[in-house]
Q: What sequence folds into this?
DNA sequence: TTGAAAGCGCTAACAA
DNA sequence: TTGTTAGCGCTTTCAA
């Protein structure tokens, strides 16, 4: 790719304004050491010329970095696109650029993306998406991020990671509990769970919440069928087939994500099984289409966009002694996919 | 934000490898002018040290730029997140970073984002999202992009824009035609259209396709109610209320986007109106949830992810004499939301 | 308050 | 094939 060069340099502005390079630099950066009069004049000239500073030169010379790297599993996934939307919104307010990479939920690829972001000298790195239960999975990423922080970079993560960094912690356990309690309160005892990859902390936490509620409800957790799959609609669909086959007595299904819940609903519809009359379905996340499914999906809302905003806001603050941790809220949203246990 | 500095410089690698800066640079950039033996050695040393080049220094020194700027309306919108996914996928293969900005469908904000991207010295700018019917809306953006191209930058756009650049042209007109013809073939004569902002070329084109089909079908276009709103689910919902009130005889609704079609379905469900038995609904885009709505949505598929991939692929080729233009395909996807006109 | 000059880390001419 | 050197455009000491 050929280099892109805008003829306009700070030197041009300085010359036209009749000041030195240094003065022009100070004026435009809003630093002090310049009289208001001169500063204003320089800014006017720059504006007139349509001057925009070369970020590369600025960063290289030791100026501040104005880009934030965001690592998501896959931007096409609504969970992540909503987080990204929040990050970009806050970034836009501060004139920061957001660079987005796909990790593909692969620790190795995640590490490579982190390397690339560091090479681009981002000042902030946000790792969105679940952490891994096994600390070793992210060992290399952790080392890279620690070095990055040591050199002044700021890091924040969304989710429970084995990384030493400010963290936005989705209420995964509480959300799982909430979903399960909702079903229990409707009288369901034959509950099945469509789960995700059990290498992920998100899965661990959501399951823990569900398990706790189940046990407090007087049921035995190990009696509950838990089908591990991946976080996709199709996996939800297949897992449902399996549940219908192996556990026909099931009256309620919890899907660990809305994406999977959509697959669950599809499978049930294909089988002509009435929701919620015969089987209730509850998801987690509350992606924006959840309300528009038929039946509309009962789910537990996690504020994805707000999580993205918060992650960047935390990273914009100076590093604290110990990593900050902020929990998000969660909220059970009861819609039409859940109902009382069938009397049959 | 403090600067982020990795102590490791090319000079360190060169020294440790026992070669000059220039040789090290050549070796790592994969340029020739170095013996394979030396090159390999340098690369090994660099790898061992965990060296990653400073992009800013590299770009400033006249090397190639490795970032692409992508302007979308809003990344939380599935249409754009799928496009972005395609762009990021291709970028990942080539070690390019993708910077994403929101235009908010506001020409002024779009211009500012373009400025910012140019300041960051991206080598490629991709403008996704509809163009504006009024060329003046994008006049400033156009000027900025033209200057950018003149200095070696590459630009590609998705949609019909008044910009001189390589373009991926969604089959908007054909898609509109296809949707309308489908309804006509089912016998519908009382068709209403839920449209978007008529400042957008996307709206103009989709409506043109629909109008053409309608007229060829023997109907009078001006008799068809066209409700202009915005491209959102809620607008689709409200427009439907209006259609039910003002045009109760309607047997089919075309929504210009799936997002709006989702709102249409919601409104009809709220009114207890059977789809497709009393009213058929067809959307455009085929966002991924379209298949999972109930009833599943008949729509016309535009390959969003492929469009994103294509846009970047075009921009990666050297600029041609005249702007390239590539049409995307489109495909009618018949699902359960459309059926024959009610016999009543 | 202002200006001159020394880099930031790299690439790319130019020499050897 | 390799090395030397002059910048790229900016920020930031250090002097004035």
A:
């Amino acid at each position: 790719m050929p280099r892109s060069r805008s003829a306009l340099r700070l030197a041009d502005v300085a010359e036209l304004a009749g000041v030195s390079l240094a003065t022009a630099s100070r004026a435009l950066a809003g630093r002090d050491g310049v009289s208001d009069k001169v500063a204003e004049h320089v800014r006017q000239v720059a504006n007139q010329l349509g001057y925009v500073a070369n970020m590369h030169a600025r960063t290289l010379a030791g100026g501040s970095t104005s880009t934030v790297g965001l690592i998501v599993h896959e931007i096409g996934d609504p969970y992540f696109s909503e987080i990204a939307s929040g990050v970009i919104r806050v970034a836009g307010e501060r004139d920061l650029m957001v660079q987005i990479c796909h990790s593909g939920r692969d620790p190795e690829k995640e590490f490579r993306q982190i390397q690339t972001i560091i090479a681009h000298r981002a000042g902030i790195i946000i790792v969105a998406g679940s952490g891994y239960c096994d600390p070793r999975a992210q060992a290399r990423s952790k080392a890279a991020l620690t070095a990055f922080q040591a050199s002044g970079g700021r890091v924040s993560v969304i989710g429970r990671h084995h990384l030493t960094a400010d963290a936005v912690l989705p209420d995964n356990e509480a959300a799982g509990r909430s979903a399960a309690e909702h079903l229990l309160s409707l009288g369901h005892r034959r509950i099945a769970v469509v789960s995700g990859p059990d290498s992920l902390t998100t899965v661990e936490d959501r399951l823990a919440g569900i398990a706790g509620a189940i046990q407090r409800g007087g049921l035995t957790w190990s009696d509950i069928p838990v089908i591990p799959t991946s976080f996709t609609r199709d996996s939800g669909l297949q897992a449902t087939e399996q549940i219908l086959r192996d556990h026909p007595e099931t009256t309620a299904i919890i899907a660990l994500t809305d994406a999977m819940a959509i697959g669950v609903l599809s499978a049930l519809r294909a089988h002509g099984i009435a929701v919620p009359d015969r089987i209730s379905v509850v998801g987690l996340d509350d992606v924006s289409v959840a309300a528009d499914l038929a039946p509309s999906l009962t789910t537990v809302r996690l504020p994805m966009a707000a999580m993205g905003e918060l992650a960047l806001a935390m990273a914009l603050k100076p590093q604290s002694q110990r990593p900050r941790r902020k929990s998000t809220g969660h909220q059970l949203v009861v819609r039409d996919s859940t109902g009382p246990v069938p009397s049959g």
In short: Chain A touches chain B through 70 residues (CB under 8 Å).
